[in-house]
Amino acid sequence: MRTRWGVPALLVLVAVLMLAAGGCHKKVPPVARPVPPPPPPATAVPASPVKPPAPPEPVTEPTVVAPSPIKEASMSSRSLDDLNKDSPLKPVFFEYDSAEISSDGQKRLDGNADLLKKYPTWIVTVEGHCDERGTAEYNLALGERRAVAARTYLVSLGIAADRLRTVSYGKEFPFDPGHSEDAWAKNRRDHFVITQK
Predict the structure, then answer these.
(1) Which pLDDT belongs to residue 147?
(2) Exposed end of the chain (fewer CB within 10 Å): N or C?
(3) What are phi and psi of 164, to 5 degrees?
(4) Count of CB atoms within 10 A of residue 112's CB?
(5) What does the alpha-carbon distance between residue 195 and residue 167 come to, in Å, rounded to a whole number?
(6) For residues 74 and 194, what is the distance between their CA atoms, to the nearest angstrom?
């Protein structure tokens, strides 16, 4: 049998039941998400002892080093004997039986002239020498021609003639006492001696 409240009452009843069922529904606890493990603790680096800053370097005054005396200055202070032991003037060598100055001899005389210009008070004797072959008279004459040839060349380079003297020793003072061609080549020469400075 139907009542006029039948359907609505039924609907209300269903709703009440549903609400009751919902209210009684057991809540599902939330699932815990996996939590990443905490990072490992930083390994403590043993702290090195902090060094105090180095003390500043002491400031020292720069040492003034006196320049070493140049060779030219030492030449000015040397005695004539010392100068002539290790003469800065280079000898000039000649071919057999010749007083002609070679190109090598000219280069040596050019260097000698430069040095004589630096020391304008030097007076030099040009000694002409020969090897042991030939007569004494012949070698004296040849030695004189060799000395004069070097003097003339130096004068042509601007060296005052009155600063240059000549002498011939012929074969009397050989540079090399040997009796070979090598020794003779060394003995055919002009030798320069500083006689005044």
Answers:
(1) 97
(2) N
(3) -125, 115
(4) 25
(5) 12
(6) 15
